[in-house]
Amino acid sequence: MRIRYGVVMLVCLLDLLRPAAARAQTDERREVLAVVQRLFDAMRTRDSATMRSVFDPAGRLVSIRVRQGHARRFGT
User: pTM surpassing 0.85?
Assistant: First the structure.
């Protein structure tokens, strides 16, 4: 039990010694990945309101379907 406690304390200490910029970059990465995960979850459940919420309000969702060599655009 003591060894595990020591390892946990060492890991926590090493995390505190990491530069603040590296910690901030990790936090930003987690935030971005959370938004991407929300988008894919919304796509899987076909929840267009949630899909729209992860994009900029001025953005547009567009899809293109190609059939028999002709492209057709769908979107808002």
Answer: no
